[in-house]
Amino acid sequence: MPRPIWSGAISFGLVTIPIKVVPATENHSISFRQVHLEDMGRVRYRKVCEVDGKQLSDNEIVKGYEVSKDQLVAVTDEDLAEIPLPTAKAIEIVAFVPAGSIDPVRIGDSYYLEGDGQVAAKPYKLLRQALQRSSKVAVAKFALRGRERLGLLRVKDEALVLHSMHWPDEIRSPESLAPPAVEIDDSEVDGAIALMDAMGEEDISHYTDHYREALEELIAAKAEGKQPAPAAEAAEPGGQVVDLMAALNASVTQARASRGEGEHATVHEMPKPKKTAGKKTAKKTAKKTAEQKTAEKKTAAGTAAKSAAKKAAPKKAAERRKPRAS
């Protein structure tokens, strides 16, 4: 475990927990020196005053703030140390919030909090178990590297972890990045979920930095005077996806094949709308309407004929009853 970078206490109401802050992550990136290619001499940077041209040592350099174009104000480490900062030696918990309410965009560097001595054992465990049982995280203020920061306290295994957080006004709005409005069919969403299921994993600890591994091989080969192995040609990026459902189907099949799964998953393709369907429906509707009108005319004609027959029947009967002339 690396050396602590800060020591102080967690302020939890009236409870104090002495702790040490230890970096929770480490950087495995390969670093380079700048050299002169002709003779491999190291290229160094010197701190030179632009007024008198004198090369300066670190203890001769202080911070300066540009008030205006022609005015700089010097701020020394002593000036910063005298600023009243209540969180200078304390991680002050200011609120407890649901774990899911924190936007991951706000989370920065991570630190482990180590209990400092036996006196910290009980309150440390108390806070850890209280956070676990409540499913909450603690929002705290603390000072690190000359500035006050907002922090997030949570539980990882048996330890407390402190994440530095960006202040609310440091987060840019993503509103201008939203794509234009488009229609998404439910079957397309189902297809995307099927692909997510095919690519689902419980443990992602097996992923490694392939670029760093290739860079290490390159450096080892050149150190031995060997020619580095040629890199494999990268696949050409595909063109614009026209059939989204076909791409989802192919992606699910590929994901399952890469995992060696025998079961073949399929995303059902959406039925394509027929262009003639609307015309056929319109013709059927027009035909039915015409037939209905013809039937109605026939019914009306029949009804009129019956009415006329009924009216004519009494006249015919009267004529039959009249005596015939001799």
From TrEMBL:
Where is the segment annotated Disordered?
253-326
Alphabetized InterPro entries for the sequence = DNA_bd_Ku70/Ku80, Prok_Ku, SPOC-like_C_dom_sf
Pfam families attached here?
A: Ku
Compositionally biased intervals (Basic residues):
273-287, 308-326
Could you tell me the keywords of this UniProt record? Answer: DNA damage, DNA recombination, DNA repair, DNA-binding
Instruction: Please name the CDD domains in this protein's record.
Output: KU_like
Q: Where is the composition biased (Basic and acidic residues)?
A: 258-272, 288-299
The record places domain Ku at 53-182
- Assembly and interactions? Homodimer. Interacts with LigD.
Family stated for the protein in its record: Belongs to the prokaryotic Ku family.
Task: Supply the HAMAP family for this chain.
Answer: Prokaryotic_Ku (MF_01875)
Annotated function? With LigD forms a non-homologous end joining (NHEJ) DNA repair enzyme, which repairs dsDNA breaks with reduced fidelity. Binds linear dsDNA with 5'- and 3'- overhangs but not closed circular dsDNA nor ssDNA. Recruits and stimulates the ligase activity of LigD.
Q: What is this protein called?
A: Non-homologous end joining protein Ku
The organism is: Streptomyces kurssanovii
